[in-house]
Write a structure and sequence with these properties.
- It is a single chain.
- By secondary structure, the protein is of the alpha+beta class.
- Helices cover 22% and strands 29% of the residues.
- The chain is built from five helices and 14 strands.
- It has a seven-stranded antiparallel beta sheet, covered by helices on one side.
- The longest helix is centred in the middle third of the chain and has 13 residues.
- The two termini are 31 Å apart.
- About 3% of the residues have low confidence.
Length: 199
Amino acid sequence: MERDVIAKYDLLLIPRFLDESTCQEFIEQTRLSSSAPATVYGRTDSGSVDERVRRASRLNPSDAIVESVKQRLLEHKQHVEHHFQMKLHGVEEPQFLRYGVGDFFVAHQDGNTGLIRLDTEADRKISIVIFLNPQTDKPNSGTYCGGSLKFSDYRAEPAHREFSLAAEVGMLVAFRSEITHEVTPVTHGDRYSIVSWYR
């Protein structure tokens, strides 16, 4: 069943895109970094904070960490192009995010829909999420509960209308930016992830 739904949403999963020790190092370094509320787009080119739509923190790791993730994404660009059968022209600077208890991001699309007129989103073709820590059903140290990456398509047959992807440490998931997705509210712990977009 899960394999069918992954195919339906045309998800590309790359397990261990980052190894566990690298993920832990990133969490430790970003935990100590400065942060700011994550923004949403749609009203202004620079984005705005709207906690009715998205509540999360954007972290500020070192330039070296950001560049290392960007380079790794560029190294995988050809693999992503092959999977989605499209030419891509680059990758946006990765964003490091923390979702604490109660944080969420409502159902949305990242771009490539024809509905978004901002230059920052109009060219997004493939969205990327990299999970840095594990999601569990019961609270454990270093894990989080809730905070699922959930995909939806209410035009699909009932069995495929919603799908929540289980997070694995270091796994990358890539999907077309026009696909509706959300982050459900975190109920325990902190959810650490990296997001970016191929153009």
